[in-house]
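Sample entry (184 residues):
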Amino acid sequence: MEQFPRIETERLILTELTAGDIPQIVKYAANRRISDYTLNLPFPYTEKDAVYWINLSNQGFKNGTHLIFGIRLKTENQLTGGIGLTIEQRFNRAEIGYWIGEPFWNKGFVSEATRAIIQFSFDKLALNKVTSSHFEKNPASGKVMVKSGMIKEGELKEHIRKDSVYHSLVVYGLTKSDYGKNLV
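Predicted structure, serialized as tokens:
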């Protein structure tokens, strides 16, 4: 892939992150309620964290290990959050991760973005499987995965440590052969 992909849905545009996005990223990611439910968003979240995330996106695209998209509202081109794929080429699969700013919660944006990323993963990247996981204490994220057609595969007890606390993860997956069978 020579150019960073652009994915459009009914209400969203998923695009490359840029330095111009830093103020919006910090505005929405600097939220304790988001940090508490995600593995990789620290609190407090600073401009330095946003720069790191954009650099991770750029490097990941260059070496084929990450595709990190900004989630934008189509009507205003406003950045609302992020969604990405961590690609494991050896196993022909990827893990989906996402977050969205609190003003955009419960509007179906993350489910819409996740469905688009899954379709992109199978149709454009020719992956065999996508996975995702959420903290056990964040069932709303599990609902996104189910609405996107993913199937619960299991739970990993006290699998992750963040801020000196162990968290259990609920793991979901979807293979290319099962794609489209479980959409809610």
